[in-house]
Each structure stands twice: as structure tokens, then as C-alpha cells.
Amino acid sequence: MSSVLPTSNIKGFPKILLSFAPTWWHHYYGMEYSSDYWHDPIARTERWRDQRRLLFDRFGDVGLGEKDPKPQPVAGDAYGHRFMSAFWGCEVQYVPDQFPSAIPLPDAHVRMVDIEVPYVEDSLVVRQLYDEARILQEHYGQFEAVINFGGPLNNAVSVLGGEIYAALKAQPELARGVLQRMGETVVTVHKKVVCALNKTPASEVFKKDFGLGNCPVGSISPRTYQELILPADLWIRQKFTGKFNLHHCGLFQQYATVYRPLRPTSLDVGPGTDLRATRAAYPDTPISTYLEVGGLAGITRDRLDAMLEKMIEDAAPPNLFPLITVAEAGPEISDETVIDLMTARDRIPVVG
């Protein structure tokens, strides 16, 4: 579980959300991310608290960490971001200094032709999630069930590997059907597992905020997305009446038009996105983005400030540019750069 803390100390300046990768924690503090760690919900919760304390000791002067963090027990992290992959039957791998990863199912094309959606009631990973929830409730008196779902294409790529890309090209109707099943399964698990554990009233299930992750979309054309993937995304969108965040890992601007039917209430766009063009396409929508963590190794303070200032200017107005994320910083990012990043608000003027 990454430790993060947003900063927001100047009116109009976006929050900076910084998380450290398992490689950073492994390198500096010897923390290992074995299967035993991920499948022990109390160990995960206490690790998170230890990380908050360590960040406070190291970077407390610039707003990171907490001196005495309260526990924030979460049920649903046993597979990291690969819960849905495990639900579909994928083997999940664990290594000492990385987040869990999933191995796509064998015979993926055969499975696509006659796709069988797992039953929630028969799922081992769902039963494990309920066990986590019980353990956390007994130990802490509280928990929150959280699953990082990802969108239909995210799930299809993780579960089926490259076969879904081949199907998009050679058997588009087959691919469209698979993506629809993936979308339906996300909604089913959200309703029957997450909302059930969190005791969400049935009348409120689809009024809650929801986010759609579209990490692999940048590897296909906007036209392919519009014709073959959008229908499944749109099916999900039509279920939810609350706020709807759209996350797109890659460059966003070329997909701005084809995403419009989803009516996102906020956007989370990938590093390097043309924020000026994105703002023109979505003038009234809050837009968040990322700094590419690989580009921060060895960066000077002046260069960092110039990058942030341009992002703020391009995404203006400031009240619609709430967040810049630096995700999974590794040990190649120096402490000096972390401090420069977290104190940039003191050096960069924001107008408007």
C-alpha cells in the first residue's frame, strides 16, 4: 500500500499527490512485498502506518507523513490492483519490491469464444475478501472495502493478454462481446461485494461516485475505441448517476472527442498530455494529471518549477486543475527532488 499525502497550501495551486513505489521502500527500509504481506490485512494496515511515520521523520517539514497516523484498514488489497484478474482465475505473482502482477489465462482465444463469467458466490477470492473484512472489523472495529476495478479493456488485457488486441483487429464482434462481459462483471462485483461489505443501501448503489480506468486505451486508435470499446464503457457509465471520473493513462488529447459520450464529471489524464487542448475540449471539467516519474531523476529545481508552471497555465483556470500526481517514485528520485516538489507551491505564483 503506497503512502500518499496531498498538499494544498496556496489558494489555486493544485495539490501535489506523491506516492512511493515498493522499490523505494525496499531500497531504503528493507520492506518486502511478499504474498504473506499482501494476504495479511493487519500487516498491510500496520505497514501503512509505519510508512506514514517514516515519511514524517524524513519529510515532515514539507508536509509528508504523519507523526501518529490512525489506522485506515482496507479490505480488498490482497491482490493489489489485480483483484479482478484473480477473480477471473489468473495466477497473481508476488516479488519482494513490486506490486502484484497477473499472468493472463492460457488458451485465451478459446475462452473468449465461449466466455464464462465466474459466479460471485463461488469465488475463492471473494471469500478471502470477506475473511479480510471480518479480521479487520474484529481487530480495528472498522474497515472499508475497496477494489481497484479498472475498465473493461483493463480487465480484458490483464486476463486475456494480447489475444484481446488480436480480436479487436480480426474478430471485432467477438471482442465487443468479451468487453461487454468484462464490464458487466465489474458492475456485479461492485454491487454484490464492495457495496454489500460497505453496507451501501440498495437504493444508493448506483448513486455513489465511480471511476473508470482506461490504462491500455492509448495503445489503440481513437476510432477502434469508439467502435469497439466505448459501448461497454458507456454501458457502465449509464448505470451510475453520481460523479464519474475517467482515468486515461496515456496522452489524452486525441481521444477527447470519442470520450465525450461518457460525460465524465472529472478527468485524470496521463503525463505529457496537451493540457491546453484538453481544457479547450472540456472547458468546465476538473482535470488532473501526472508528472512522469522517470523524468524527475536528476531534475533541477528550476526545470521542475518551469514544468509545473506550464501545466498550471495550460490547464487553467486553477479551480478546475485540482491535482498533480507523482505516482510510485523510486529510489532514483532524490530526497532533494522530493523536497523541491513539495515546496514548489511556495515558489510558483498562481494567478486567477
State the end-to-end distance. Answer: 36 Å
Strand element count: 11
* Poorly predicted segments: 1-10
Strand order of the largest sheet: 1-2-11-10-9-8-7
Major sheet details:
7 strands, mixed
Rg over C-alpha atoms, rounded to the nearest angstrom: 21 Å
Silhouette: globular
Tally of separate helices: 14
**Average of per-residue pLDDT values:** 94
Q: Structural class of the secondary elements? A: alpha/beta
Secondary-structure element order, as H and E? EEHHHEHEEHHEHHHEHEHEHEHEH
Helix content: 40-55%
Strand percentage, roughly? 5-15%
Task: Tell me what you see in this structure.
This protein is of the alpha/beta class and 352 residues long. The chain is built from 14 helices and 11 strands. It has helices at 22-29, 35-38, 41-59, 83-87, 108-113, 124-140, 152-160, 163-170, 172-197, 222-237, 256-259, 275-281, 301-314, 335-342; strands at residues 4-5, 15-20, 74-75, 91-93, 101-103, 144-145, 210-213, 244-248, 266-269, 287-290, 323-329. The strands form 3 sheets. Strands 1-2-11-10-9-8-7 form a 7-stranded mixed beta sheet. A two-stranded parallel ribbon has the order 3-6. The chain has a two-stranded antiparallel ribbon with strand order 4-5. Helix 8 packs across helix 9. The chain starts with a strand and ends in a 10-residue tail after the last helix. Residues 1-10 have low confidence and may be disordered.
